[in-house]
Amino acid sequence: MNNYEPNERGYWGEYGGRFVPETLVAPLDELTEAYFSCRDDAGFRAEFDALLRDFVGRPTPLYYAERLTDQLGGAKIYLKREDLAHTGAHKINNCIGQVLLARQMGKSRIIAETGAGQHGVATATVCARFGLECVIYMGTEDMRRQELNVFRMRLLGAEVRGVDSGSKTLKDAINEALRDWVTNVETTYYLLGSALGPHPYPLMVRDFQSVIGREAYEQILEKEGRLPDLLVACVGGGSNAIGLFHAFLDDPAVRMIGVEAGGTGPALGGHAARFLAGASVGVLQGTKSYLLQDANGQIAPTHSVSAGLDYASIGPEHAFLHDEGRVEYVSASDDEALAAFKALSETEGIIPALESAHAVAHVIKITGNMPRDSIIVVNLSGRGDKDVNTAAEYL
Amino acid sequence: MKRIPEKFASLAADERKGFIPFLSAGDPDIVTSKEIVLTLANNGADIIELGVPFTDPMADGPTIQASSMRALENGVFLDDVLQMVREIRSEADVPIVLFSYLNPLHRYGIEDLAKDAAAAGVDGVLITDAVDTEAVEISNMLSQYGIDLISLIAPTTTDERLEKIAASAMGFIYAVSRAGVTGAQTETADAAELLVRRARRFTDLPIAVGFGISTREQIEDVWKYADAAVVGSAIVAEIERSIAEGDTLDRVRNFVRGLLPPFANRAAEP
To answer: What ipTM goes with this model?
Structure first.
């Protein structure tokens, strides 16, 4: 256990907490209690680990991207292949954990929000596996961008409800999921998909995703006999990044970089880079963190070519790691992500999700300045099949 | 004496119960919404709940979401709402409670808000998404400037929490009638009555019931066991209809007169 635990109110430093309507306070207390009783329970952990192994296919490989490394002529680049997890992204790790918890709590109906659709697909998958009713909220703009995932969710027996309010993206889907939860809280479990929202979600999602970093830690020691110099992951809400970073936080020699969506440029509304100059702190959807907002405290519209990074706030633990200086945060533009999408496809035969392509884009930018014997581990958080239509519009 | 306790004291003295309408400031526009407040005050409103527009109203149903969006499209923000209250104060002394999400208030600065809201004549602030321990500092800051942070309770609130909330509550307590978002319904759940009776064991403060109240029958039902009834979405829906059909103030006046029993002693326009 390291020093990166939140306090009992779910705060990392000044970030986090639980900003919800009164109706949700008791259910969140109940959830927190249930989670903490499972967290260190050997039976719960054994069931979780067995499903990760046999259903998800873990451990996912740590793959040396030899051609990309040779072509860029810098550090050795390893890819943590979350794209090879069942359903094609890291999202399923958290879904397995939370569905086990929901079952423990006696909830029969699962609701979730989704942006890119990967969390929705993973939720629908695990609900199918356990025979649970499943409703997924998704912005209609995202449904358009991620048509394939909408079909997959329906095939898996989930009901996909389009959300037409606001920007019609992830933020609006979360609002609608919260409205459902507050209405049906007796029977319903809200399976939040990123390291966001009110306590205990950011902690719980981080814990369930931290398997990524634990595996990578062992794998790199096995392959290279030492820890990497740098970890790189894309950051929307921040679950894949915190999942990779968490196991390495106590090793100060390991640098970490989170890559946000730089979109079309730094004007407010054109990106989803919460730490960009002029960044401010606010409260959205249950948590206090960095937030894209205007001078009146209204939430700013965001843009990214990747639906999964297109969100106005960021998980509270990232806000804390940013202020502590433990993790650096940068951004990659739409164009840079698309170039990386193409580059990785061509050099390695791996089509990355557009989200993960942001992390690859940053590696392409910096690796040339790193010594040949240095090591980078990139979280390839998902595969890009879902993005081929979007990419075809641009490339 | 502050306006909210004074109002409930005078209601009690008259053996009457309270009526608390809600509207979003700035819907259909800032000038008309100010006139709606004055019309409500002259037609039986005991307290006004004034919604501060926000882009992401997660506790609201479609009617109030749309109303909030119209107000934002009109460029109405917290400073405009405070200015509106200032103007209302020269014409009416009806108690006013701001109904807001935390982020616009947080961005404005809680101390600045407390100072400016007190100067404008705001009596209470209700923050949908700042409850429990997250509300303590805010409540202390507001009360330094004489403003009550109105506490919410809900059917899911445990007795243990009711006791805690009652111990620090000010002005009145807002009981959410059912698990759910705002929005008109035809029946008020038994859950509301049960909640009010549970809360009564811990507090002598007035208790208002809101969420889903849209008819005279529901108001009269709430008045049997609580001190005041809040009507939000039903009034906002009238305002929305008037955008296409006109005569906003007449519509609101007629609607509210239809909601309230014709008390002889209730102040009303001739």
So the answer is: 0.95
Answer whether A296 sits within 8 Å of B104, measured CB to CB: yes
CA A18 to chain centre: 20
| Mean pLDDT calculated for residue range A251-272 | 97
Stretch A45-59: mean pLDDT: 98
Asked if the C-beta of B161 comes within 8 angstroms of chain A's C-beta atoms, the answer is yes
Closest by Cα among B224, B204, B232 to B20: B232
And the tokens for B1?
């004496």
Q: Decide if B156 touches A, using CB distance below 8 A.
A: yes
Q: Give pTM, 2 decimals.
A: 0.96
> Using one digit for the tens of pLDDT, what is the confidence trace for B2-17?
999 999 999 999 999 9
The proportion of chain A whose per-residue pLDDT surpasses 90, expressed as a percent, equals 93
Q: Three-state secondary structure along chain B?
A: CCHHHHHHHHHHHCCCCEEEEEEECCCCCHHHHHHHHHHHHCCCCCCEEEECCCCCCCCCCHHHHHHHHHHHHCCCCHHHHHHHHHHHHCCCCCCEEEEECHHHHHHHCHHHHHHHHHHHCCCEEEECCCCHHHHHHHHHHHHHCCCEECEEECCCCCHHHHHHHHHHCCCCEEEECCCCCCCCCCCCCHHHHHHHHHHHCCCCCCEEEECCCCCHHHHHHHHHHCCEEEECHHHHHHHHHHHHHCCHHHHHHHHHHHHCCCCCCCCCCC
Nearest chain A CA: its distance from B241 CA (Å) = 20
Please indicate whether, in this complex, the C-beta atoms of A20 and B179 are within 8 angstroms of each other: no
Q: Which residues of A are catalytic?
A: 91, 113, 381
Q: What is the mean pLDDT of chain A?
A: 96
Categorize the per-residue pLDDT at B264 as very low, low, confident or very high, splitting at 50, 70 and 90.
very low
Q: What is the reported pLDDT for B187?
A: 62
Which residues of B are known to be catalytic?
A: 49, 60
Q: Which of residues 44-103 of B touch A (CB under 8 A)?
A: 53-59, 61, 65, 72, 77-79, 102-103
B230-249 as b/e, with b when 16 or more CB fall inside 10 Å? Answer: bbbbbbbbbbbebeeeeebe
pLDDT digits (tens, 9 = 90+) for B217-232: 999 999 999 999 999 9
